Amino acid sequence: MNETEVNSSMLSGKEVRVFRSIDEIGKSTMDSISDDPFFTYGWFKTLETQQTYEYSPIYLAVYCESKLVCVAPFFIELIEPNSNGLFSRLLNLGFRQNKALSCYSPRCYRSKILFSDNRDKKIFFSLLSKEIDSICKKQKILKSQFPYVSEFDKLLIENIQKYGYQKMPGITTLYLDIQWTSFEDYLKSLKPKARGKARREIKKCRENGVTIQESELEDLTTKLSDLYANLSLKYNNNKSAKRIFDSYFFSMLNMYAKEK
User: Fold this and answer.
1) Do residues 59 and 29 touch, judged by C-beta distance below 8 A?
2) CATH 3.40.630.30 residue ranges in the chain?
3) Residue burial 63-72, b: 16+ Cβ < 10 Å; e: rest
4) Residue 17 three-state SS
5) Which end of the chain has a smaller Cβ tally under 10 Å, C or N?
6) Is the pLDDT of residue 149 over 50?
7) Which residues sit opposite 145 in a β-bridge?
């Protein structure tokens, strides 16, 4: 179902509301639709009130008969110039600043749309796409994007190109490309030195009361992504953390997961 296949009867009773603060949606309402700690009222409220990073949030919420059924968090970002010439200096002064409307939860590197009703996802996405286009035109935003789409998000993966978006392979996504049937297979895929270190750190985890259990692949990638972002930002002095494919990840997990 694309935009042309959504008729007026499908849209009856549904509307998109635009909010600039998570308080306008409300804590209980937002948390009732969220299944992800990085897409909760508390997380977005923290982003809005902290002083370290500057965020310009836009929350698109779909209501059906006055009931919240869908939320898509967006943030307006400046597109960084690629050169250091005169054009870059003009950009820094505020002239011709190119902006992007990005759908994701900052500091966790995941694009996601929250739904309370799985039956009408495509209809809700159609409504959102129209509102996204309207916001970009009114505010002269150069482009909208979903920069960190999970391979497990079938709605976005299968439908986003129908609304004018282009798929591009991302190099910054923290979702794992799972190629192993078990955790033991993953360990075997590491180089011998890294594999030995990983096993030692896992043993230390067990000795310290931290249990590592295998889970379903989709859930596993989400949890590892959460942990990786958490470790990288909180305990690595905001420097680029080493990739999850070496023993450093397990060393940090052993150090910090015990009290989490």
Assistant:
1) no
2) 3-163
3) ebeeebbbbb
4) strand
5) C
6) yes
7) 102
pLDDT tens for residues 20-71? 999 999 999 999 998 888 898 988 998 888 777 788 899 999 998 889 999 9
Q: Which residue has the tokens 């799985």?
A: 118
* Exposure of 8 in the CB half-sphere (CA atoms within 13 A): 0
- Answer whether 167's CB lies under 8 Å from 54's CB: no
| Distance (Å, whole) CA 220 – CA 238 | 24
Contact assessment for residue 14 and residue 67, using Cβ atoms and an 8 Å cutoff: no
pLDDT per position as a tens digit, 70-112: 999 999 987 765 544 555 555 555 555 578 899 988 877 788 9
In the chain, how long is the greatest CA-to-CA distance? Answer: 62
Q: Are the C-beta atoms of 178 and 221 separated by less than 8 Å?
A: yes
Query: Under DSSP, is residue 78 helix (H, G, I), strand (E, B) or coil?
Result: strand
Contact 64, 13 (CB under 8 A): yes
Q: CB-side exposure of 48: number of CA atoms within 13 Å?
A: 17
Is 175 buried (19+), middle (13-18) or exposed (0-12) by CB count in 10 A? buried
* CA atoms of 138 and 34, how far apart (whole Å): 29
CATH of region 3-163:
3.40.630.30
Question: What residues contact residue 216 under an 8 Å CB cut-off, 6+ apart?
Answer: none
**Residue 130 to residue 138: CA distance in whole angstroms:** 12
Whole-structure pTM over 0.85, yes or no?
A: no
The DSSP 8-state label assigned to residue 105 in this structure reads B
With cut-offs at 50, 70 and 90, classify the pLDDT of residue 114: very high
Which of these, 169, 157, 162, 45, lies nearest to 105 by C-alpha position?
45
Closest listed residue to residue 19, CA positions, set 35, 34, 30: 30
